[in-house]
Amino acid sequence: MPLHAYLVLAALVFVIGLFGVLTRRNAVGILLGIELMLNAVNINLVAFSRFRADLAGLIFTLFTIAITVAEVAVGLAIVIVIFRVRRTIEADHLDLLRG
Amino acid sequence: MRIGSPELALLVLALPFASFLAIGLIRPLRRRGHPAAAVSILAMAGAFLTAGAMSWQAIPVARGLNPAVLWSWLPADGGPMASVGVWVDGMAMQMCVLVTLVSLLVQVYSWSYLADEPPPSLGRYYAYQSLFAFSMLGLVLSPGFLQMFVFWELVGLCSYLLIGYWYDRPSAAQAAVKAFWITKLGDLGFVAGIVMLWSGTGTFDFWPLFQAAEGGALHVDGLTTIMFLIYLGAVGKSAQFPLHVWLPDAMEGPTPVSALIHAATMVTAGVYMVARAYPLFALVPSVLTLIAWVGAFTALLAATMACVERDIKRVLAYSTVSQLGYMMAANGAGAPEAAFQHLTTHGVFKALLFLGAGIVIHHFHTNDVFRMGGLFGQRPWVGGSFLVATLALAGVIPPGFFSKEAVLAGVLRAHLSVPFLMLLATSFLTAFYMFRVVFLAFFGHAPVHHAHPEPPVAMDAVCRALAVLTLALGLRAAVAGHHVEGPAWLPWISLTWAFAGIALAWATYQAGRLDPARLAAAFAPIDFLARRRYFLDDIYGGTYRLLLLGLSRVVGWVDRYVVDGVLNALSAGALRAGDALRRIQTGQPQDYVYGVALGVLLLLVWAQLG
């Protein structure tokens, strides 16, 4: 398969993730969307690594996965704290920063 | 011409200045008051003795010798621009003796007069007095216009400070500001005149200017304008019409200050300056004629106002204005020596009149002559001193008789018949208003009165000393055989007028033959105008309001509506814009992410199109 097939796949996954982030009202859903966007990037990195015979991309991906896991852990912890304080995780109700 | 020792002249200058510095800089001296008075009086006594010695040692010299000792000042590329120094000729020395003597007596008198003042105020007073003596002596000894102008402004400052000595009284503060501003109006002309003279001739110094003027070698364009401008300085300082309005108000200061500054010395600075610069004024006959006319008119105008004034100090103030008019008229008529003679004699007896008035006010606790009476019986010495000075001022006894006659003869010699008649009428009025005060305050019935405090010994002694001095000056003039070039009928006619004035005052205020109200009715228009001071104060007030307040109103409008308007519009716009833009911040992270995504998209599209 040519390179641009992987890139199109990555772009699709990224846009689906973005769509999820923008439209989901549930904080957990937003986190899931962010996961999709990060993995789209991972696909890009792996594809370039494979087609250009450069291991750096793979190593980057390993790092990204580790960081993603940590990020999800922190993100979910924040969601739990918000739920404890506000009794909701609906994004529409979390507007303390409104000007 | 006689020349004095410049070293002694510098010592005369240095003593009061040292006293001023000591009182001004040493705080405990100033705050305790009485030591400051002692220092100032000692310095003044030293200056008086030095001035006397200088005058005594003076040597006669040929006319061609420069009496000035100069040091260069204001270095510039083409040599120094001006010089400072002392000019010790006969006139300056005589003036030095007068200034130091009257200063000394007034300072001694003030120590008693202001004894109840708080010590710090007394220290301040003596600091001002020392500064004034230094400035006045510096003015008198000036060898050039620039130095004269510097000291001219310094005496103006001292006058301001001393008029406003009781600065917590609104009337005194107002009078001080009025005196300062009105004299500054004249000083504007003075400074413009000397700068124009300098740009025409390249020097401020009297000696080269006088040499050129007398040799007919002074060629300056617009000399008439220049001398007129310089004369304006004298109009302000010597209280000539129409700038005389500040002097009566200056009586808000303590009485000894009025005696020293506003009668004997500072106000005569204008007369002295014109007499000093006479060789230059002699080149411009039109300005001289103007000086004579304005002087005579001032003399007459002030005399009419003195006739209706009730406040004893203001009567004396108008009398000073009137006598300054005499001196200026003599200057304008080409008789500066007569003007100077009248200046010195007037300085002595007018100081005596003011200091006597100080005792009178002390005695009756009022300035109103109609609430006084019978002081002669209780205080014969005070009454006698006051009477001597009054007779001298009226021109009945020497030295006033001789100096006034010299002025009148000088004016007559210059064929100024209308000013001459004005001055004759003034001598009648002078006798009338002065004897009006004498009859009202010293004779007649004593008002019912609580306490009669003895005047302090020092005040009494100073008055007696001045009375003796007046008589001695008169005796010397009489013995010296006074020669006035004038018609033989002149002394008789001036004496007749003076006695007529005395007789009218006697008939009206002493004998009761004439009702003052009927006398006033006979001269109703003049009486009406004089009581309202010829509306001059109102005209000045109106002009001030019209010009200054009008301008302030315009400036205020511009500030309120244009400057403030722009700023208000700007701030209102910023507020409204902020209010509108506030709504972008929804506080929802998803909206921000949406914005970021949209932005990236737009950038991509732009990159594709570009």
The radius of gyration computed from the alpha-carbon positions of chain A, rounded to a whole number of angstroms, is 17 Å
Q: What is the makeup of the main sheet of chain B?
A: 2 strands, antiparallel
Our estimate of the beta-strand percent of chain A is under 5%
Strand order, biggest sheet of chain B? 1-2
How many structural domains can be distinguished in the coordinates of chain A?
Answer: 1
Structural class of chain A: mainly alpha
**Integer-rounded radius of gyration of chain B:** 31 Å
Please describe the structure with a list of short key phrases separated by commas or semicolons.
heterodimer; A: 99 residues; mainly alpha; Helix Hairpins; 3 helices; B: 610 residues; two-stranded antiparallel ribbon; globular
In short:
The complex is a heterodimer of chains A (99) and B (610). Chain A is mainly alpha-helical.
Describe this structure in words.
The complex is a heterodimer of chains A (99) and B (610). Chain A has 99 residues and is mostly helical. Chain A has one domain: Orthogonal Bundle (Helix Hairpins), CATH 1.10.287. In chain A, 79% of the residues lie in helices and 0% in strands. Chain A contains three helices and no strands. Chain A has helices at residues 3-23, 27-52, 56-86. The N and C termini of chain A lie far apart (50 Å). Chain B is mainly alpha-helical and 610 residues long. Helix content of chain B is 75%, strand content 3%. Chain B contains 26 helices and four strands. Chain B has a two-stranded antiparallel sheet. A two-stranded antiparallel sheet of chain B has the order 3-4. The mean pLDDT of chain B is 88. The chains are: A mainly alpha (99), B mainly alpha (610). The interface between A and B is medium-sized, with 12 and 12 residues.
